[in-house]
């Protein structure tokens, strides 16, 4: 992350992993950065000086999830994303990072790659139309 941001760090981290990724996230967080935790695929336990690290960087940690929201709230969030974020993908302002594309019959290989954290970006499965 340091080379990408020229040592500044990331202003915003979207974290669906949690667990022991907190160290990498904190190291990557810019001064006054925001860290949004929206999943715990890597576990919910954290051990270490995470709070002092956040204080040192004046970082903000926001935890959120869709699971505990009503269907109405979920629909509002989807509508807001559709209105505000999708156009940014369409215009090229937001660019998804795609690591690799696998045909659907290689789903096991794609999953193995993901399990070993060998990817930098999304792993896409291509589903052919019959």
| Main beta sheet strand tally, sense and closure | 3 strands, parallel
Task: Please state the average pLDDT score.
Answer: 92
> Separation of termini?
41 Å
What is the class of the largest domain in the CATH system?
Alpha Beta
Number of helices: 5
Contiguous runs where pLDDT drops below 50 for at least 5 residues? none
Residue fraction in strands: 15-25%
Give the name of the CATH superfamily of the largest domain. NAD(P)-binding Rossmann-like Domain
The CATH topology of the largest domain, please? Rossmann fold
Radius of gyration: 17 Å
The geometry reads as globular
Q: What's the helical proportion of residues?
A: 25-40%
* Total number of distinct structural domains: 3
Helix/strand layout:
Elements: E1 10-15, H1 22-28, E2 29-37, H2 50-56, E3 60-63, H3 71-84, H4 86-91, E4 98-103, H5 107-115, E5 122-126
Parallel strand pairs: 1-2, 2-3, 4-5
Written overview of the protein:
- The strands form two sheets. This protein has a three-stranded parallel sheet with strand order 1-2-3. It has a two-stranded parallel ribbon with strand order 4-5.
- The protein has five helices and five strands.
- It is α/β, with parallel strands linked by helices and 130 residues long.
- Helices cover 33% and strands 23% of the residues.
- The termini are far apart.
- The longest helix has 14 residues.
- Strand 2, helix 2 and strand 3 form a beta-alpha-beta unit.
- The model has no long low-confidence stretch (mean pLDDT 92).
- It has three domains: 64 residues, Rossmann fold (3-Layer(aba) Sandwich); 28 residues; 35 residues, no CATH class.
């Amino acid at each position: 992350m340091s080379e990408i941001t020229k040592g500044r760090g990331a202003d915003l981290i979207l974290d669906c992993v949690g667990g022991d990724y907190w160290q990498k996230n904190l190291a990557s967080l810019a001064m006054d950065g925001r860290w949004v935790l929206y999943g715990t695929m890597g576990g919910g336990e954290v051990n270490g000086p995470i709070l002092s690290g956040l204080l040192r960087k004046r970082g903000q940690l926001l935890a959120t999830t869709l699971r505990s929201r009503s269907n109405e709230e979920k629909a509002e969030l989807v509508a807001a994303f559709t209105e505000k974020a999708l156009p940014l993908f369409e215009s090229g302002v937001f660019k998804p990072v795609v690591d690799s594309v696998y045909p659907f019959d290689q789903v096991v290989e794609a999953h193995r790659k993901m399990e070993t954290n060998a990817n930098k970006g999304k792993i896409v499965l291509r589903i052919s139309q019959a």
